[in-house]
Each structure stands twice: as structure tokens, then as C-alpha cells.
Amino acid sequence: MRPEPRLIEVRKNVLKQNDVVARSLRDRFRGAGVFVVSLVSSPGSGKTAFLEKTLTLLRPNYRVAALVGDLATENDALRLARSEAPVKQITTGSLCHLEAAMVQSALEGWDLNQLDILFIENVGNLVCPSSYDLGEDLRLVLISVTEGEDKPLKYPTIFNSADVAVVTKVDLADAVEFHWKSAYDNIQAVRPGMPVLKLSAKTGEGMEEYLRFLAARLIELRRAAAV
Amino acid sequence: MHELSIAMSIVELAEEEAKRRRVQIHAVHLKLGTLSGVVKDALLSCYEMASENTPLQGSRLVVEDVPVVIFCPTCRGQRPLSSVQLFCCPECGTPCSEIVQGRELEVVALEIQECAPNPV
Questions:
Q1: A67: buried, middle or exposed (CB in 10 Å: 19+, 13-18, 0-12)?
Q2: Count: domains in chain B
Q3: For A30-70, what is each residue's pLDDT tens digit?
Q4: Predicted pLDDT of residue A78
Q5: Of A4, A10, A67, A205, which is the most exposed, with the fewest CB atoms less than 10 Å away?
Q6: Per-residue pLDDT, A94
Q7: For residue A220, pLDDT beyond 60
Q8: Is B120 within a domain?
Q9: Domain of B109, in residue numbers
Q10: Which CATH number fits the domain that encloses residue B16?
Q11: Chain B interface includes A100 (CB < 8 A)
């Protein structure tokens, strides 16, 4: 006779494999002294324009590079290549998010010691990327003024997983009657204390403050590593 | 929609345990935090697909929802969050960003049955 079914305890993190890879990436980044910033947002919020501007402005003073995730095209990498920074496209096929292992294989052949800041642009999606650690130091969540002020309330999980919120396309704010205060309040409601930056990659408004913010974080990171 | 790949990871993980312990699995018990970024209903239907043609076929996925609990620095205690749209202490209203619980995506238990030993 077969014994009765019984319950046994296991306790296993389902995303353990991803977390293990993310941890080893983070160790590598730390070891090489490279500051890693990831970008998440919905499609069309201006991630690529923002990143192109970021790379172009940082390049004279910092060694920067980018990995960009997309489902099917290499258009983003081609656009970003105009900044003359090293850029690699990660084409995910039909996958809606980046995973740590994809970052790991995309980095093959790159000497991290030659970099100050590495940007990772996730696939445009405000749901799935929230579950996956990519080994980044800082996760930026972008929200454009054309998306509406309530995006943070609709996607609290991803906003909660981010470190900084960046409101993009502020040059269009008046045209779409964007209400800054309610956007700010909504961000703070789902992630109290999160720094919020507003800028326009097109006009350059707010970019300087954002670059200063990044530089300060880079210095902080290097100081912490030196201790 | 990343629930299918999550479901496949769960099946893989359970399959390994089944093989290692030489048991048959009737059910997988999962803790699913509100902030895990995974939708329960989508996960349940994906589990069925993911377990098809594996030793887990026909097994159940039992999901325990884990609500968000935050630490309130003013009350100096853990409090359940009333809404993920408002990270505030439900008692004193202080904004709280320290999450104690609610990100879980964890297989916690397996309902198993020992495989019949091979006749000698």
C-alpha cells in the first residue's frame, strides 16, 4: 500500500537563479568600480532619447556605455550609437523584460574596468521588469508628462522597486496640462522619500541637475568602495 | 506577461525536488507577495501549461497571498499596509518605505507521496 500524501517544507525562492546571477554581476561591477544605472518605463516614455542625451552629455567627462533591451529591433542601439559611446542591443525575442543572465552574456568581451557608468535600458514595460534584479546600483523609473499623473498609482510595484523617478518630456507639460503636484504626490504615495527629477531630453531642461545627481551618486559609490 | 516563465521555474524547481527525494508531487505551495510583480490568476493558468508533459502534470499550485507589511518609524512597529497605492502607516499616517513583507515569490512546501519502492 502506498503511504498517504504528506506536506514537506522546502522554502525556495523561485527567482533564485536570477538573484544569484544578479549578485555576481553586482560583485563584478563593484570590483571594477563601475556605477550601474537601469531604466524602466512604459513604451514611448522617452527612455532612448533620454539615454542618448545622457550618454552624449556624460561622454566628455566619463567613460560611459549602455545595454539596451528590446523585443525585436536594433533601432535603439543604432540611435544610441550616435552618442559614440559603446552600446550593445539585447534583443529579447518575445520576452517582456531583461533578466540578469542576459546582462551577463551581453557584457561578454567588455572590460568593465574601462567604464565609469553603465546604463541598462530595460524593455518598455511597467509590470514584468519589477521582479528581476539586474545587479544595478540605481533603478530609474521614467514617466512622461503625456502619460498622465496617475501612472504611479496604476503601477505601484515598479515604482516601489525603483530608486529615483524621472519625469520626462516636461517641454510638453503645458500642452497636455500636466499637473506636477499630483504626479509628485502619487510618486511619494507609492514610494515615500523617492527623489523625483523632471527634465526634457529634447530641450535639455533639467538635464544638468540630473547629471549632477548621477555624479554625486558615483562619488558616493566610489567612496564607499574605497573604505 | 512573465508569469509563464515564472511558472516554468516553479515546475523546474519542484521537479528537481521530486527527483532528489524520489517522490511524486501532488501540490506545490507558493507564497506570493502583493509586491512580487506576479499576477496570481495568470500564474495559475500558466502553471497548468508549464506542468503539462512533466512529472508535475496534474499537480496543483496552491497560492498563499502575502500582504504587504511595512515598518513604521513613528510607531516603531510593523503594520499591515491598507493599500499599495499609499505607503503610509495605517495608524499614524507616517509615510513608510521600509517593507518587511510582501515581495515573496517562494515555494514553501510540497505535497508529496513516496514513490512505491521497486519490487526486489
A1: buried
A2: 1
A3: 999 999 999 999 999 999 999 999 999 999 999 999 999 88
A4: 86
A5: A4
A6: 76
A7: yes
A8: no
A9: 3-114
A10: 3.30.2320.80
A11: no
Q: B-chain residues within 8 Å CB-CB of A194?
A: 97
0.80 surpassed by pTM = yes
CA distance B57 to chain A (A): 16
Q: Which residues of B touch A141 (CB under 8 A)?
A: none
Contacting residues of B for A4, CB less than 8 Å apart: 113
Distance from CA of B114 to the nearest CA of A (A): 7
Q: Is the pLDDT of residue B118 over 70?
A: no
Which domains can be identified in chain A, with CATH numbers? 19-226 (3.40.50.300)
* Residue B119: inside a domain: no
Q: How far apart are the first and last CA of chain A?
A: 64
| Among candidates A95, A157, A190 on the partner chain, residue whose Cβ is nearest the Cβ of B37 | A157
**Are the beta carbons of B87 and A130 separated by less than 8 Å?**
no
Q: Name the residue in chain B with its Cα closest to that of A11.
A: B108
Average confidence score pLDDT of chain A? 93
pLDDT bin (cut points 50, 70, 90) of residue A95 is confident
CB pairs under 8 A between A and B: 102
Residue B28 is assigned to a structural domain of this protein: yes
> Is B99 part of a structural domain of the chain?
yes
Q: Any CB–CB contact under 8 A between A15 and chain B?
A: yes
Residue by residue, DSSP assigns chain A as -PPPPEEEEEEEETTHHHHHHHHHHHHHHHHHT-EEEEEE--TTSSHHHHHHHHHHHHTTTS-EEEEEEESS--HHHHHHHTTTS-EEEEE-TT-SS--HHHHHHHTTT--GGG-SEEEEEPPS-SSGGGG---S-SEEEEEEEGGG-TTHHHHSHHHHHH-SEEEEE-GGGTTTTT--HHHHHHHHHHHSTT--EEE--TTT-TTHHHHHHHHHHHHHHHHHHHH-
Q: Which ipTM did the prediction report?
A: 0.82
